[in-house]
Design a protein that fits this description.
Helix content: 10-25%
Number of domains: 1
CATH class: Alpha Beta
Bound molecules: nickel (II) ion, manganese (II) ion
CATH topology: Metallo-beta-lactamase, Chain A
Strand content: 25-35%
Distance between the termini: 6 Å
Shape: globular
Number of strands: 14
Length: 232
């Protein structure tokens, strides 16, 4: 499989069967992402929670590409009313699409439709474990604080090969907590996300890399440029 970071928490993942998955498709309002909506053609869109910097352009992308959206139950209802093919799941459940198994897991954060005037409850915030058949397992943490089940559930039970962790502080883990999360999750690779897209979340990914070296010496920190493909 291969993947590329689209800035903030947005990633594009492409399976060996060429299934194209977007996670947290924040494109148009994402200051780090140079792409246009028309540059992307997802088969599947995963949304971790309702905040605008994660929900992003899900509706427009799903309409244009006829993509299936995997998200929590409450967001799926909202999307279905918009005519989108959305599958609502909850913590612990998975759906299988072609050669990828997508499981929803916990995140400690909040979730609301903060992008429209009515606002409103958008279910519980989630993380995702994506299991690529005969290939890697990828954990995308969404927005979250450090929590002990990163060790006891994600690390010990699910054992991802790659973890994508937010390091922005203010709404989630800072780089120190994210380095401890890296140790607990015990993946081969970690990719920092949710930093430097806005003034309130400025972080140096190289400092995070040094902290990972100290807390989780067996894990390699990957700091991709935006749009740079990494092949595994
Ligand atoms: Ni959020
Ligand atoms: Mn966020």
């Amino acid at each position: 499989m291969k993947l590329r970071w689209l800035g903030h928490s947005a990633f594009e993942l492409i399976s060996n069967n060429n299934l194209n998955i977007l996670i947290d498709p924040f494109i148009r309002g994402n200051p780090s992402c140079p792409l246009k909506i028309n540059d992307l053609n997802p088969d599947v869109i995963c949304i971790t929670h309702g905040h605008a910097d994660h929900f992003g352009d899900a509706i427009e992308l799903a309409r244009k590409s006829d993509a299936i959206v995997i998200t929590n139950y409450e967001i799926s209802i909202y999307l279905q009313r918009e005519g989108i093919n959305a599958i609502g799941i909850n913590y612990g459940a998975f759906v299988e699409i072609q050669d990828v198994k997508i499981k929803m897991l916990e995140a400690k954060h909040s979730s609301s439709f903060d992008f429209n005037i009515e606002g409103g409850y958008a279910g519980n915030p989630a993380s995702f474990l994506l299991e690529f058949k005969d290939d890697l397992k990828i954990f995308h943490a969404g927005d979250t604080s450090l929590f002990s089940d990163m060790k006891f559930v994600i690390g010990e039970v699910y054992k991802p090969d790659i973890a994508m962790l937010p390091i922005g502080n203010i709404f989630m883990m800072d780089p120190i907590d994210a380095a401890i999360a890296t140790k607990w999750i015990n993946s081969k690779y970690v990719i920092p996300m949710h930093y430097n897209s806005f003034p309130s979340i400025m972080q140096n990914p190289e400092s995070f890399k040094s902290l990972v070296k100290k807390h989780a010496p067996n894990c390699e920190t990957l700091i991709p440029d935006v749009l740079e493909f990494i092949e595994f």
